[in-house]
Amino acid sequence: MLHMKLKILICISVLFICFESANAQSITWENTYINSNSPFRNGINALCKSDSGNFFLAGYTLIPSNISYYKIWVLKINSYGDTIWTKTYGRNGSQATTVVSNSDGGCTISGRTGEAFTIRIDKDGNVLWENIMVDMLYKFIR
Fold first, then answer.
1. Tally of domains in the chain
2. Rounded Cα distance, 17 and 43, in Å
3. Which end of the chain has fewer surrounding CB within 10 Å, N or C?
4. Residue 110: inside a domain, yes or no?
5. How confident is the model over 28-35, as a mean pLDDT?
6. CA distance 124 to 127
7. Is residue 9 part of a domain?
8. 100 domain residue, yes or no
9. CA 6 remoteness from chain centre
10. Whole-angstrom Cα distance, residue 56 to residue 108?
11. What domain range is 128 assigned to?
12. pTM, rounded to two decimals
């Protein structure tokens, strides 16, 4: 009985320490990113650290027109959350699901439209190459 009470006390102590440690974190900065061309429907699905402490954020934005459609939306921000640049890519109806940094300071973005795709961009957001995988499920590159 004493052994069981000791185990319970240790578990409660560990949980308390973990909970207190998690709550002790402070927010360095917080920001909301909105595409000024489409302020109503934007989303970030993935992010990764880039060169010099910058970050790439990738997701989707709604492009308003007679027939509205989503496009890939990528932002590059600095370590303070300030936007360096923002660009849209891809076919109509596309959105990014994954972004991975490359050794050259750019990144590779994967996602889906009706097909799966990958796009590689340089550190300034210029497209280096684009690959669309027809008749494949996007989950294979996710």
1. 1
2. 35
3. N
4. yes
5. 74
6. 9
7. no
8. yes
9. 44
10. 10
11. 42-140
12. 0.72
